C-alpha cells in the first residue's frame, strides 16, 4: 500500500491581515472564516487525519486478510479458466487490502495462500471450491468427494475437445433417436465404470498437459481407460438434438467423455454444449457459491464461518490466533489443484 503523503505547511509562509479586529462575540467565527492561515491549517489537519485513518483501515484489512483460513466456494462463470478466476479473486483481495500484486511478489516474510480444488473447464460454470490460508491443506479432500453437474449435450456432432469450443470432427444422423433410447442406455454409465479421459485435459505426458500438447499439434495418444464412479445419472429433458443430463460422480470423472460415449452408444455422436457444476462436496451453487460482487474480505470471512460447519470433523481447522502482519511485508502464494486422481493430485504454486 502506498502511504498517503501528508502535506506540511510552514507557519511562517502563511500571511494574515494586519488590520486590528474588534473584540466582539463573532470575532472567532469571523477570523476562522476570513483567515487563510486558519483555513489552511484546518485543511492540513483534516488531510492528515484522513490519511492516517486510511492507513489504519488498510492495515486492519491486510491483517484480517492474512487471518482468513478455511474453505469456501465461488461461482465461476463461463469464459475464464479456473486458474484465471482464482487470480482474479486474488487481485481483488489484494487491492482491497491496499497491496498491489507487484508488491506481494517481492515480499516473502508473510504469505497469503489461496488455491482451488477441482478444475472446471473454461467453457463450464458453477461451483469452484477455494481454500485460503491453512484451508489449502485440505483441498485434496475436495478432489475425491462427489460432484454434481447439469450437462446439455448435442447429438449429431463430435468435436476434438468433446465440447462446443472445439473443431467439428464428425457428423452423424440423430433423427431416429428417442427419449426412451437415451434413458435405456444410461444404466450402462452408472456405478463403477471404466472411462477414457479426453485428449484435451489436464492429464500430463512428460510433465506437460495433454491439452497444451494438442494445441501445439503434437501427436498425443489417449490415456488408457481408468475406473471412475457415477453415483446417479438421469435424463432431465430431450429436445432433439439436445439432451440434458443430471450427473453425480466421483473424482477424476469427465462429463465430456460421458456425453461423447453416450452419443457413440446411440450409434451417433455428441458433444457438450453447456456444463454447470451445481455441487461439489457439501458446497452447492445456490447456497454457498459467492458471486464476484461478494469477493470481499468481509464477505469471505462470513462465508468461511458459515461453511466451516459443512466440513467433516476430521477436516475442520482448529482456530488459532491471527498472524501479526504489516501491509508492508505481505506476499501471495497461488495454488491450484487438478481435478484428476493419482499422479495429478498435486499442489502447484505460482
UniProtKB/TrEMBL annotation:
It is an enzyme of class 5 (isomerase). Coiled coil: none annotated. It is found in: Cytoplasm, Cytosol; Nucleus. It catalyses: a uridine in mRNA = a pseudouridine in mRNA; a uridine in tRNA = a pseudouridine in tRNA; uridine(55) in tRNA = pseudouridine(55) in tRNA. Keywords: Acetylation, Cytoplasm, Isomerase, mRNA processing, Nucleus, tRNA processing. Its main location: cytoplasm. PANTHER family: PSEUDOURIDYLATE SYNTHASE TRUB1, TRNA-PSEUDOURIDINE SYNTHASE. This is Pseudouridylate synthase TRUB1. It comes from Equus caballus (Horse). The gene is TRUB1.
